[in-house]
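Incident review: delayed structure delivery

Summary: a single-chain prediction request sat in the queue longer than the usual turnaround. Root cause was a stuck worker, restarted by the on-call engineer. No data loss occurred. The affected request and its eventual output are reproduced below so the record is complete for anyone auditing the incident later.

Affected input:
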Amino acid sequence: MKQMNLCAKIAAENHLMVLFHGCTIPRGESRTYPNIVSFEAINGSEYYKWFEAPALANRVSYTFTRNVVGSADFTPTGIPIYGIKATAGFALADVVTIESGIQHFAQSVYTYEGSSALPLLNDVPVAWDDMKVLDGYPMQFNVTARRKGEDWYIGASTLAARTVDIDLSELIGDGEYNAYIFADNDDGSDLKVTTLTGLTSGDKITQKLLPNGGFVIKLTKGTMKLTTPYSNYRSYEAENAALSGKASITAGKQGKYCSNNAYVGWIGGGADNAVTFKNVKADKAGKYTLRIYYVSGERRSLMVDVNGKYADTLNDLYANKNDWSGIRAVNMEVELKEGDNTIRLYNDKGNGPSIDRIALAIPTEDLTGDINFDGEVGVADLVFMERYLLGAEKFNKTQFTAADLNGDNSTDTFDLVALRKIITRS
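Output delivered after worker restart:
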């Protein structure tokens, strides 16, 4: 504790913020050193990598126990975890019910792409102006509301099925509010998002919770963005595609970081060992961005055929060293015909990466400078190009073309200057 005190003091003198992990519970240090943004001192969700703890009874109770003495960096995922009985709604509620001055979403960034939870995760604050426990009982259920400005976020989670009534007079005063409700679908495997408009303090919101279920509601006088850069992607799961040769499905615990907890492995080592996606639909003929989600613990290559013709080879596909469960993604440009298309992934020589899924970006508008193909042009593209010019990052053919803003068949500092101008104008 002496070390923690010295760390906080020295950090404050140097205008640095501190997050303590592997520490004791907070005892008011943040009042002396407000540069301490949070503490761990909690059985966080990373333990699910090895155990079935923390129990869901603990997660519904942390508001009443651990959070009473200070911020708790629980590192929630916000989305379901394989082998843990919490529904999608329960998992999302953690980001509201468990307060931390800095919030870590403890899943792979690639797992969140296309998730129904992502709009809320992009939106939820970490610093709050007020909080109220609307209902609950330790080890049973929790309904907690937190306010940022005029907006309220209500998180609810429960062990047993129950009905929750939220009396808005406890939260809002004059004016009309809109409610964006992220609740469980029929079986809790995903979220169902609904909107209520024109709500006043005289209204109530009633929600039925599944066993081990939950929800999050945002109450605002304004609107909420319910789309993300991945909202215009059509996804196709590898386990539902046509497999040939030795290609086979790995599902369950070994595939727990992939969508639907499954991927296709044993691709490559011969052209016959392949995964083929049929009926990949394009609304019109033209060029499309294809995003391939893969698993690889070493650098591997992947060959791509489109409609029976060789399209490209993607090299240096690599997620984490010797990690055969974590995922990553790579983009390429493909020429598609109108209607159904076939995309085949293979390696006719060496081993290829395992494939989680592919996603086809349906164009909304042309974005000049979108080098990382996330649907936006911004600082992330600038950093990506800078790292490329420093030799710390590699471009595939499609990325190289996107980065060649001057159209001189090279990517250099002149393109970097052009990208800076695009970002400044936007």
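Verification: DSSP finds nine helices and 21 strands in the chain.
Action items: add queue-age alerting; document worker restart procedure.
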